[in-house]
Structure prediction request, 129 residues.
Amino acid sequence: MEPGLNLEGFLWSFGVWIVLYLIPAVLFSSIPILLNVRLKKTKLDIWDSLFFIIPFWIWALCINLNPIQKDSGNLIEPVLLGSLMFLVFCFRVFAGEKINKRKMQLILLSVYSLIALGMFFLIEKLGEF
Prediction:
């Protein structure tokens, strides 16, 4: 894959988003979401769905702009990123309405996006499968 934005890179990223990011993200985030429904601690809204979109696409944009820095072994990164969704939603559910909802969503989204950037820049090339 060549550096830069192209259709092939976008389609590759979309496939990775579905298979390697969304599946673990949905599986792991379903636990605190179901617990939230049971405990009725806080209301989740459409803004919470941004946690499923923005951090991965920040990581994917970095991968597409500089694919030479990573190999197929680094496909573990979106799996790890999706698995962290559990912690994000646990914090979101258990903090409840104690913290202003919009502020908490913005802070969590910012931290989660910084983690995605950190994964790209701090995890070295892991090699081919």
The chain has one domain: 7-122.
